Amino acid sequence: QVQLVESGGGLVQAGGSLRLSCAASGRTFSSISMGWFRQAPGKERQFVARIIWNTGSTAYADSVRGRFTVSRDIAKKTAYLQMNSLKPEDTAVYYCAADKFTYADWDTWGQGTQVTVSS
Q1: What b/e sequence results for 85-113 when a residue is b if at least 16 CB atoms lie within 10 Å of its CB, and e otherwise?
Q2: Are 63 and 43 in contact, with CB atoms under 8 Å apart?
Q3: Does residue 26 surpass a pLDDT of 90?
Q4: Per residue in 37-79, pLDDT tens?
Q5: What are phi and psi of 57, to 5 degrees?
Q6: How far is CA 68 from CA 29, 36, 42, in A?
């Protein structure tokens, strides 16, 4: 069974940095891309970034472009989200997701990791 496990969340001051990891387990894991999403209290989950596994092509939400960088290590089946210049409004639970069959049809989700940015 394929699982996605996030790590790297925590508490950081505004202007600081964190790097999130999303490791995929399972011998048969494959997906077109890996996406990062976040959900703040009382708000809907929103797209943050995504990376296509075989090309490395990336996309970002306007709110994080220039501050966040998504990358992947194919051999480790792990995606990363480097978050710099963090703002209090970046506070949320961050999730990674995989689209195994159809591009951007996110069918596998991690459990989430909390990111809290203090002002």
Answers
A1: ebeeebbbbbbbbbbeeeeeebebbbebb
A2: no
A3: no
A4: 999 999 999 999 999 999 999 999 999 999 999 999 999 999 9
A5: -65, 140
A6: 26, 11, 23
Mean pLDDT of the chain: 95
Q: Residue 54: which residues within 8 A CB-CB, separation 6 or more?
A: none
Q: Which residue has the tokens 């949320």?
A: 92
pLDDT confidence of residue 60: 98
**7: its two tokens:** 């790590």
Dihedral over Cα of 56, 58, 64, 67: its sign:
positive
Report how far residue 33's alpha carbon sits from residue 4's, in angstroms, rounded to the nearest whole number.
13
Residue 103 pLDDT: 87
Would you call 73 exposed, middle or buried from its count of C-beta atoms within 10 A (0-12, 13-18, 19+)?
A: exposed
Q: Where do runs of H (alpha helix) occur along the chain?
A: none
Map tokens 């959900």 to a residue.
39
